[in-house]
């Protein structure tokens, strides 16, 4: 048993920003070599699927090099049935792929909920997969990991294939088959990948054929207790016709499956495009309602039959010896087979007329002894099979797995870990339920299934700041939290519709069903623009800055507006946002005027000239005044430009 509880409480990636660009959101799925998260590409403001390689893979320099190379190759695939690869990165040893986010479900969900499927439906689901593989094979790319989990079905029904090249990046870094790829995808593994470690387009065809078998039957063709047993079956046993499990499947569909899953890769379709053409022929036969098409069936099965004939193939039944399979590289495996015993029929003889038997003495006593013996035998058998072989299931609740197993072994029983579940009452790691239940009858050598507590179900609040409202809601739902009160508020930094803040805060541990309150941005707050025309420039600037605006100023002369007051502003009404600019035009008063020359003029004439020019006049007498009333000097001097209304001092003699 592992003490790791597969929840997001310990997932420290949730809420982080990788490579300064991708904010990691809710976890979507977890596989053998990577975990997929919904993430926000903050640079392009879009939701992506972030596939993060498990810790340790990033420490392998060779894997990092191949990972980059395979990601670049996959990114070149542009096809409507291929999940697009946008980016790849390395954040301090955390390798990741940024891919197209496909909301919906996987083909595994369809198999789990709907299989076995009618042949027409199964072929329709497989056709887009082969279309994607055809594009890859044309580009020289082998997927190597076709399985239902890598086939995504969007909410609008579009089928897309994911993870091109990742299996190759993993399996070429020193991981053995059982350590790496085999552990997760052995049920769909081509024989040559097990025996030789090599793959080509025909390996993908084999995996697609297994996929078709599972769609048609709802089960995998090869099973075993360990991955190695399943891998052995791929190498040494043919995939049976689907009609063995689901009668009514046409022979040409059986032939199609067995052709695609031939153990010798030379007998399979050369690539996905060839396989796709075969599926088109089979689909047409189904559309025509044909229960059998000997010509089509023959076209699909002839190469296999021909090879067996060329190799003097012995099916083990016609000769009644054993089941011998011809294997590549002289790997001949003999599986013992016992042919059915012949039925021996005795020659007919003349019918004899039985003679009536005479009753013998003691027959009644013999019958009585027989009845008593039978009663004793039945009683003994009933005791043995009904009581003697059974015992009571011990009470193992609230024990550790080790203690529960030890107690069971003392009684001659065994235990198996059947399930883990959350419990508010039973501490983590202790048994919370058994099957059979305590006190129930169990065989003395029986097995007890244990359900072990994962402790209280708790989740950590993910980082929601910056996510849009729907993405935040999905992130909470993925860890069984709910969206609580939603408040809208203006924000100068967070775009409209995105989360400004949330409570409880990030990383708070909460129970399922607990609510997280969100503050959603309404965008920047609009600010009404006041009309400050006619106000002093100082007052207008202070008012606008206090409202949050920046202010621009231009000064100019104006005959009507007093100096220092606002002539106009732009805009002078409506609304703006903080830090937006309001432009003011401030008056410098009337334009300057040139002082006329009144020297040597009579005082009366000088006063008239200056007054008409818009100036005021002050008369001063010279110290040596002679009484002539002539202007001997003036200040400001003649020709100088001054403001209208300026006082001109004239000196008379």
Automatic annotation (TrEMBL):
Residues 391-454, 455-522, 523-588, 589-653 form the PASTA domain. Coiled coil: none annotated. This is non-specific serine/threonine protein kinase. Its EC number is 2.7.11.1. GO terms for molecular function: kinase activity. InterPro entries: Kinase-like_dom_sf, PASTA_dom, Prot_kinase_dom, Ser/Thr_kinase_AS. Residues 338-359 are annotated as: Disordered. It comes from the Bacteria. It holds the Pfam family Pkinase. It catalyses: L-seryl-[protein] + ATP = O-phospho-L-seryl-[protein] + ADP + H(+); L-threonyl-[protein] + ATP = O-phospho-L-threonyl-[protein] + ADP + H(+). The gene is pknB_2. Keywords: ATP-binding, Kinase, Membrane, Nucleotide-binding, Serine/threonine-protein kinase, Transferase, Transmembrane, Transmembrane helix. It comes from Kribbella sancticallisti. Residues 22-283 form the Protein kinase domain. Gene3D superfamilies: 3.30.10.20, Phosphorylase Kinase, domain 1, Transferase(Phosphotransferase) domain 1. The chain crosses the membrane at residues 365-385.
